[in-house]
Amino acid sequence: MLIIHPPLTKPCEPPAALAYLSAMLDAHGHPCTVIDMNIEGLHFLFDTAKPADDTWSRRALKGKGKNLSALDSSEIYSNIDRYKRAVSDLNRLLENSGNKFDLQLSLGNYVDRGKSPLKSSDLKLAAQQCEENIFYPYFKKRLLELINLHQPANIGFSLNYLSQALCTFSMIGFISSRYPKIKIILGGGLITTWLSNPDWRNPFPDLVDSYVSGKGEEPLLKLLGISKTIEYVKPSYSELLQNEYLSPGFILPYTTSSGCFWKKCNFCPEKTEDSPYSHILPAITVHDLKMLIRETSPSLIHFLDNAISPGSLKALTMDPPGVPWYGFARIEPPLNDKQFCISLKNSGCSMLKLGLESGNQNVLDRMNKGIDLGLVSEVLENLHAAGIATYVYLLFGTPAETWTEAQQTLSFIERHHRFISFLNLAIFNLPICSVETSLLEISDFYDGDLSIYRNFIHPNGWNRREVRHFLDTTFKRSQEIAAILKNDPPFFTSNHAPFFSTTVFKN
User: Fold this and answer.
1) Structural domains in the chain?
2) Is residue 28's pLDDT more than 80?
3) Would the pLDDT of 279 be above 50?
4) Which residue, of 85, 217, 403, 474, has the greatest Cβ tally within 10 A?
5) What pTM was estimated for this model as a whole?
6) β-pairing verdict for 103-105 and 422-427
7) 3-state DSSP call for residue 254?
8) pLDDT over 50 at 326, yes or no
9) DSSP letter at 277?
10) From its phi and psi, is residue 66 left (phi > 0), alpha (psi between -120 and 50) or beta?
11) Side-chain-side CA neighbours of residue 128 (13 Å)
């Protein structure tokens, strides 16, 4: 079996799903080959980039090799301006290549100006017109090579983001036309979201043989006619180690859990899709990490959990992995313990991502976030004192928020700006299957039968247009907030942010 991670996603670390799936299949006597066609495809575009007339593009092409090498070493991460220039020049090459195919192409996104990943008709068209895809010369040669070598009966695609959908179906179209007997299996986060919609009706019976929803190991084994006898297997990155990811050293993705242990926040996909929560024993996590570190020699560990549990955090302080690490954590005890935060720092924690969402307590309560702003202040101050960077996520335009509450969020961030390293600003999207849709006046968000969000009329008139205007003309113009926003690594954002913490390169 082949399992493929298709373009286009950020090319900074290996796709964890492939490592977990391949390890579980191998443990059950069904070896498979995994291929990160995203990183391979992007290197294909860099290798085939053509000269352009403008000064910026000529500079970008001339410095391509130097910039790729720079992102692979630690030196450039000590200078955010040099870093921004390098990634902007590399991105310029992708933009130029994409323009020839009517694409808005970047280091982290793929937008087709003529086709939508939210329309099944456009995805079918992408399959029919696979030769028109920008990656076609690459994936034609690569797929022929892989299929002729391995003779797979099944090919699986890990489809997690809308930015991957059109390329995925282009590759499916190529395989279906050349090898109609090969069965196509689709799984991943985007597939899970589509399948969770009660109105889902399979629009691709001629292209896709099977779908896998949620955590894929057991459903995939079942599709292959194998009974699952082993509950858990550590991931294997052996087939992904040689890929030239755009990061200084190998980033090791690892998850201590699936689902969310809180799972109460209104409008959250984990709640909407009713994803079950499962947690690996902390002792197993510690053992796994030691084994994986020996196998991969990573420069950084990326915990993929929706939120690392307090038990796992404590285990990391008691038996540190010996490699810098980062991930999401809930703003709750024991992070309000200053000494514990120092222990986290000593364990290698370089950055924690924190879902604050709002600086107004009433908004947080109505979202059922389960966090207190007084506690937030303590946690932010403790992490800063310990030397742990914070990447704080804010969400504007929720039904509970108005301009007044948004202004209070601005004030909260300004008061705590010294303790915040990075900020992520998002405008609220209403999940299509959210139970709260019955309480709101809704309409189509996107034109497409595969849309994953609904538009809604805000009960207090705080609609997307007003929210965006507030962010652009007020929030981002705050001197304290603007200074934080300048820290964010363009395109790679939180994936590269830990490398701007001296913790990573001191360890």
Assistant:
1) 2-223 (no CATH), 251-428+460-506 (3.80.30.20)
2) yes
3) yes
4) 217
5) 0.95
6) unpaired
7) strand
8) yes
9) P
10) alpha
11) 9
